[in-house]
Amino acid sequence: MGTSLSGGGRHRRGYGIAAAGVAAAVGAALLASPAGASPALPQPTVNPAMETPSLDELTRRVVGAMAGDDIAGQTNKSSLSKNANPDSAIDAKIIGGSTTSITSAPWMAQLHYYDDRGTSGTGDDIGFFCSGAVVAPTKILTAAHCAKGYDWHNNGAIVTGTAQLPSADGDLHGGTVSGVWRQWNDPRYNANTIDNDIALLTLPAPVRATPIRMTTAGDTASYAAGTNAKVYGWGRTSSTSQAISETLKTATLPIQSDATCTDAWGSDFVKGHMVCAGEPASGSDEGTTSACNGDSGGPLVVNNRIVGVVSWGVVDCVAEGAYSVFTKVTDYVGVTYPRVDDTDINGDHRADLWLRHKSTGVGYSRNSRSSSFGANESWGDWSGVDLVLQTDLDRDGYQDLVYRRGDNGNVYWSHYVISTGDWSTKLLVRNWKSVNQIITPGDVTGDYVPDLLMVDSAGVLWTYPGKGNGSFSARLKTGSSGWNAFNFLGGHGDFTGDGRTDLIARYRSNGDVYLYKGTGKAGAGSFGGRVKLTTWKNTTFNDLVTVGDVSGDGKADLLARTPGGTMYQYRGTGKNTAPFFSTRVSVGTGFQHYDIFG
To answer: 112, 115, 145, 341: which is the annotated catalytic residue?
Structure first.
């Protein structure tokens, strides 16, 4: 195999160590600012990001990582299957590139990992550097070989907002350092073949860096041979020196065809999972433009979208005929995007359930255990509310609630404020009592920001594009009349494995259940053709619940309750064609006592 593109040998010269207003009617836009008092509903206790490391601790990790000489995810595989240098292992720099600014790539992130192993000596310390990209305010896209097997919460630090690497004393040169709350990598990642090499790190609080989006599922144009792509990173700049670049560099690499990549790499290149780019290396620095050590996890960008993640290549990066290899992002959007939008109540990557007891009015949450739910955790008195929806309108990684009062139809947004450790409630809109449906399915319009959908009394479906701060742009007509024929309309995430938000709808008249596939486009084209899933009359299931990825496998699930109170889980398959859900599994009984599910 090749060698991963993480940083090793940190021997650097000189380095010692829209429409707003009061909504008086259903047709008006959502409020852009609070107006009127919200109900004094009890709020839950949130455990923010476990323990957030101090600035001193994060700085210590950065300094330790930069002084380290380890390579993340290094494999013992000694050679490539074809055209290989006998000394090849798993290795990734930008050779032949040019210096760029953080203004040109504001989403770039430095990933510093340092574990002193808790011993008195330094021989067993682990210190390395990878690159990454901010794809949402709390999400860093990187390579699985930079994450798998490492405890980023206890040993990692992320630096954003600067093109310069830290100084020996920990000076960040205007950048901001963050800890890591939780981590995820594709569970299919194979360290020996460096296949399925993609991961996400979740930060405990949003960063100011402007995010960059991943490309969409089904994107073929970005991978056409000859398409110019840009790679970014701080990796090595020479095959003859371990020194990495003090400042951010970029290089333009032409995308190569699968046939060319296979010819160069043989069976080590996995078609569909990988893409290679650049001109064939010359055998020396001169005439070679390539990613190298220290660039691992960094983005390959086409038309301001991430199409690849720096993954692997040959040791020293310039072996004659070699190409840089990247994870092909379009084939991983389906499994990765749910992790970008994976907010849940206790922060374990599994969607949890919010529910209200119909006789007492007390609200509860139940943490997912993948195929069951934990015990009730009380949220206090929620009587007087006729709708509760789980979402994350401000994209801070913490679960929010959108709810509607039954007496006046006012709709509120309640969200956790990280800086104060308290909850805040904001009035979104007045007098939506006659609104037929309200849905918070996630990002409908394709801009990575959660949206809100509404079906008015005339049966017209509208989208209110979110701004990522609890306010919305002017509404867009998404569907003509007829949407009031459904007694259930919901969704939370992607049911078809393409990274786009979908909807589940059930007809009131006959119980037919349909899947409306999201397109990631705004307005009338937000949902494509529908597919009939099944027929479930109220006598079969009297409530459907869509809260996201309950099982934690990266695919959105569907919950259905029988009149007798048994809740069944239909796990998403992540397929774009039937079957969209697997055989049902019971996740518990006694749910007939609850009248509202988030």
So the answer is: 145
Question: Residue 321 — very low, low, confident or very high, per pLDDT cuts 50/70/90?
Answer: low
Burial of 207 (0-12, 13-18, 19+ CB in 10 A): buried
Q: Which helix (H) or strand (E) covers residue 261, if one does?
A: helix 258-265
CA dist., res. 472 & res. 428, Å (int)? 9
- 197, 219, 396, 494: the active-site residue: 197
Percent of the chain whose predicted confidence (pLDDT) is above 70: 82
- Averaged pLDDT score across all residues of the chain: 84
Catalytic residue selected from 88, 222, 245, 296? 296
Residue 132: predicted pLDDT: 96
Please state, in angstroms and rounded to a whole number, the distance separating the CA atoms of residues 202 and 136. Answer: 9
Q: Is 296 an active-site residue?
A: yes
State residue 14's pLDDT score.
22
575-581 contacts at long range (C-beta below 8 A, 24 or more positions apart): 575/496, 575/497, 576/496, 576/497, 576/498, 576/517, 578/531, 578/533, 580/495, 580/496, 580/515, 580/531, 580/533, 581/495, 581/533, 581/557
DSSP state of 189: -
Contact between residue 365 and residue 351 where contact means Cβ atoms under 8 Å apart: no
Q: How far apart are CA 6 and CA 11, in angstroms?
A: 14
**Residue 212 confidence class, pLDDT cut points 50, 70, 90:** very high
How many whole angstroms separate alpha carbon 562 and alpha carbon 539? 8
Cβ-contact 323, 31 below 8 angstroms: no
